[in-house]
Amino acid sequence: xxxxxxxxxxxxxxxxxxxxxxxxxxxxxxxxxxxxxxxxxxxxxxxxxxxxxxxxxxxxxxxxxxxxxxxxxxxxxxxxxxxxxxxxxxxxxxxxxxxxxxxxxxxxxxxxxxxxxxxxxxxxxxx
Length: 127
What we know:
With 127 residues, the chain is α+β, with helices and mostly antiparallel strands. It is 35% helix and 30% strand. The protein has four helices and five strands, in the order αβββαββαα. It has a five-stranded antiparallel β-sheet, sandwiched between helices. The chain is globular.
């Protein structure tokens, strides 16, 4: 898969839609990502780490489904990162989400039993 580039100035402009006074301190590419390229981004104002996921336009449905799953889990008090923003920009999809410590979601989902997987997937389709 061709890696999507991190354009700091353009991405900082999108981050400001969620955190109006934010400035990027640093960023680091994750080694894993379900669809696209994922970065841990440290910002000021507010002082926190967030996750930026970049995906190709052709993968839009996968990205939107992943964001829906995270929102469903979060809404139902199942530990999952909060999605702050999800849209298109600069001919790619971008998701801005909460950074959380712990295991990678795709590995945890793989470990879930069939009943739990069915419940999650069924309910995501309703939201």
